[in-house]
Write a sequence for this structure.
């Protein structure tokens, strides 16, 4: 009987200021500082706007002040995975300060929140709340100079009214998602937004204060400078990496769907492309997964390659497509037709779960980067989560589960090691977090968040020249 083959990939490195390399995002930021912005400056002063009620604005300012002085781990342990937040300011290792002026604060009045309680229709409640938040975002962004980022700190009373008995639940109606609409409002004002809920500010979140400080700082830095705090070293040059996903447009014909593509280049620079709405999209009856027809797949890939060429000044030599569903025949033909001029191609399905489990003969779970090749080698099982020697920890709960990597049987140019190394690299490219890694690569891991924003009716009304391609608007 054939046996499984097991190997381990080396941990991808990240690049920080001065071209210095490290494997852990936090260790690299502490040791070398973030990659400098395009203007070459050494220190970033982030102009922060805040929208909220009197309590939530005050709570955000308290958090920022605490971050300025630094946040220590709880207790006395300072393990490698339990890095203290270093603080902000001219001497900070993060090379970041913040500027928070009165004119960049806009307060949601209590009377407005109280008035929502008189409205019985849930849709109308949410729309009234969003209209008011839109007013305050515009108010903050119309100042000169305007803030780099607007923190929308949701008032506790507003959350309670809009969620009702669904404590901690997502604010969502049939036609709109609260978070997604706020992201779009930021886009319309050409300013990225950062949402913070009252649970986070009251330390009722699952994240300790130190984690909140780390992740907020990295997210603000990325959004403010419109650039990456770290870059990858592992991706191949002249390769176009694409994550393709789908969404239903809310408030329209339920049979109408659209595709989106997240496009990444070897430096990690990225942008979002919105496909045209189509009605004859195919759907797998067994899995519910969506697939493009031949012509739409061809058109989407042609658009991607054209945009890539415009940005890079040359067309790619290799195209890699990541998708969470299998590649159907007509869909594959369209992707191949649209990329016929590209020399090398890899079409890869990535699934989040598989029932296979590895058990170590030590006290530790399997190592991150472990790859399991089953008999036949038609798909691979990659541990993007597991014990990480670089931080001496397994930064998750429960037994780690591998993701499934399934290259297309007819469209594969790279070896399984190259494919899995790239996926492992993309698991370290979420700049809304300073975690060592995520389970899924960003090519498919954040597709739902991007899709939720583009599914909003307001997004569908945006003309092409106003469409926000930049990734930092969606995070």
């Amino acid at each position: 009987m054939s046996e499984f083959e097991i190997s381990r990939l080396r941990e991808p490195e990240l690049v920080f200021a001065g071209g210095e390399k490290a494997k852990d995002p936090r260790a690299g930021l502490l040791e070398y500082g973030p990659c400098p912005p395009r203007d070459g400056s050494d220190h970033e002063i982030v102009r922060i706007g805040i929208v909220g009620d009197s309590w939530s604005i005050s709570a955000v300012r308290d958090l920022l002040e605490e971050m300025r002085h630094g946040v220590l781990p709880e207790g006395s342990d300072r393990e490698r995975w339990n890095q203290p937040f270093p603080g902000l300011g001219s001497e900070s290792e993060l090379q970041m300060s913040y500027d928070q002026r009165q004119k960049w604060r806009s307060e949601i009045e209590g009377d407005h929140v109280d008035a929502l309680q008189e409205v019985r229709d849930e849709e109308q409640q949410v729309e009234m709340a969003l209209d008011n938040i839109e007013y305050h975002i515009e108010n903050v962004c119309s100042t000169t100079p305007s803030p780099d980022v607007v923190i929308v700190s949701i008032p506790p009373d507003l959350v309670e009214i809009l969620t009702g008995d669904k404590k901690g639940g997502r604010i969502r109606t049939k036609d709109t998602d609260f978070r997604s609409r706020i992201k779009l409002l930021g886009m319309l004002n050409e300013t990225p937004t950062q949402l913070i809920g009252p649970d986070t500010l009251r330390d009722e979140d699952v994240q300790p204060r130190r984690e909140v400080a780390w992740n907020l700082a990295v997210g603000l830095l990325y959004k403010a400078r419109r650039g990456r705090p770290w870059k990858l070293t592992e991706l191949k040059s002249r390769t176009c990496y694409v994550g393709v996903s789908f969404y239903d447009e809310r408030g329209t014909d339920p049979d109408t769907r659209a595709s989106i593509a997240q496009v990444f280049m070897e430096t990690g620079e990225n942008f979002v492309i919105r496909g045209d709405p189509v009605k004859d999209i195919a759907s797998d009856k067994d899995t519910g997964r969506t697939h493009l027809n031949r012509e739409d797949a061809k058109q989407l890939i042609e658009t991607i390659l054209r945009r890539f060429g415009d940005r890079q000044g040359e067309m790619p030599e290799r195209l890699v497509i990541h998708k969470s569903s299998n590649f159907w025949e007509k869909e594959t033909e369209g992707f191949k037709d649209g990329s016929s001029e590209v020399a090398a191609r890899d079409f890869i399905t990535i699934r989040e779960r598989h029932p296979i489990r590895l058990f170590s003969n030590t006290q530790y779970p399997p190592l991150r980067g472990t790859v399991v090749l089953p008999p036949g080698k038609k798909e691979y099982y990659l541990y993007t989560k597991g014990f990480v020697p670089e931080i001496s920890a397994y930064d998750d709960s429960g037994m780690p589960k591998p993701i499934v990597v399934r290259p297309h049987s007819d469209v594969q140019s790279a070896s399984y090691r190259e494919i899995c190394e790239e996926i492992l690299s993309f698991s370290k490219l979420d700049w809304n977090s300073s975690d060592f890694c995520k389970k899924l690569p960003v090519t498919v891991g954040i597709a739902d968040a991007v899709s939720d924003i583009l599914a909003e009716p307001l997004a569908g009304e945006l003309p092409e020249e106003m469409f926000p391609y930049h990734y930092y608007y969606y995070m």
Q: What stands out?
A: The mean pLDDT is 88.
